[in-house]
């Protein structure tokens, strides 16, 4: 049985604001404009928290590895939006050459189309994690039922294909709403975001992508890159393939140890 959902302190406080506003407006009718103002402000905060990927206001969110993992000089490379039959196998070869393991946040409907690529990720010692079934840009507007169906469908697909149940979920572009936390708890998944990203679905300049990822990279960081939807370099190459060899060299020079998210918790 999944554990009972416990709301974050911020959500509990929001519920208290709602109750106080309603009770106040009933007890003192002249106070209703203030009550409405309090509710509007609270809703703006709730929406804002969901549109801020590294926020922890709506529930637990792994944005950096644990202190113990950082002490071991671990970092986590996380690679989103695959499987991509053209790019993912080449990413796997680059990771193998550096003897590095990564976490791949795969999209359920793409995994159905390219199951052999998902299996190859796991066969080479990496982890497949859950990035939703549809990867909808409107994910943060979904109600709890639709959110649960989307995530559960991807969870079933990825588990069937790889024989390994994902432990982590990441929302499309990291955007979410207060319904997500109880849905994830019900499915036994944990939310993972990132410490560093390079907007590599939009920026095709390898130098800029490298600098955004590597400049302040330190132990404990979670790095986000994309094998699916990867921007192209001026030469037409997926930018992750241009950046990864140099980034992996930098990681080795700084004596950082890339591990999967699951491994970092052990
Ligand atoms: Zn994505």
User: What ligand molecules are bound, each kind once?
Assistant: zinc ion
Task: Based on Cα principal axes, name the global outline.
Answer: elongated
**DSSP helical segment count:** 11
- Percent in helix: 40-55%
| Overall mean pLDDT | 92
**Alpha-beta content class:** alpha/beta
The helix/strand order is HHHEHEHHEHEHEEHEHEH
Number of strands: 8
CATH-level-2 architecture of the largest domain: Alpha-Beta Barrel
Instruction: Give the total of domains.
Output: 2
How big is the Rg? 20 Å
Task: Provide the β-strand percentage band.
Answer: 5-15%
Between the first and last Cα atoms, what is the distance in angstroms? 23 Å
**What is the assigned CATH homologous superfamily of the largest domain?**
Glycoside hydrolase/deacetylase
Largest sheet: 6 strands, parallel
- The top-level CATH class of the largest domain is Alpha Beta
CATH topology of the largest domain: TIM Barrel
Low-confidence spans: none
Sequence-ordered SSE layout with sheet pairings:
Blueprint: H1 9-27, H2 32-50, H3 67-71, E1 74-82, H4 88-97, E2 103-106, H5 108-113, H6 115-123, E3 127-130, H7 144-162, E4 168-169, H8 180-187, E5 190-191, E6 196-197, H9 206-214, E7 222-226, H10 239-253, E8 257-258, H11 261-264
Parallel strand pairs: 1-2, 1-7, 1-8, 2-3, 4-5, 6-7
This protein binds zinc ion.
Zinc ion (ZN) is lined by residues 80-81, 131, 135, 172.
């Amino acid at each position: 049985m999944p554990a009972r959902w416990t709301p974050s302190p911020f959500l509990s406080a929001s519920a208290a604001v709602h109750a106080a506003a309603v009770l106040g407006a009933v007890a003192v009718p002249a106070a209703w404009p203030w009550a409405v103002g309090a509710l509007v402000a609270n809703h703006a905060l709730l929406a804002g928290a969901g549109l801020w990927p590294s926020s922890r206001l709506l529930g637990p969110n792994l944005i950096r590895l644990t202190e113990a993992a950082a002490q071991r000089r671990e970092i986590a490379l996380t690679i989103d939006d695959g499987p991509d039959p053209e790019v993912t196998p080449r990413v796997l070869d680059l990771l193998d050459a550096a003897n590095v393991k990564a976490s791949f946040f795969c999209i359920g409907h793409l995994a159905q189309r390219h199951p052999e690529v998902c299996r190859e990720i796991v066969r080479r010692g990496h982890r497949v994690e859950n990035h939703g079934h549809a990867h909808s840009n409107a994910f943060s507007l979904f109600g709890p039922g639709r959110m649960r169906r989307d995530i559960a469908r991807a969870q079933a697909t990825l588990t069937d294909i790889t024989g390994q149940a994902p432990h982590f979920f990441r929302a499309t572009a990291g955007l979410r709403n207060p319904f997500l936390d109880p849905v994830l708890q019900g499915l036994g998944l944990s939310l993972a975001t990132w410490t560093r990203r390079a907007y590599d679905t939009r920026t095709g300049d390898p130098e800029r992508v490298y600098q955004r990822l590597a400049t302040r990279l330190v132990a404990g960081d979670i790095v986000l890159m994309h094998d699916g939807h990867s921007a192209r370099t001026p030469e037409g190459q997926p930018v992750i393939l241009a950046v990864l060899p140099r980034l992996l060299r930098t990681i080795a020079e700084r004596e950082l140890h890339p591990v999967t998210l699951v491994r970092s918790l052990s």
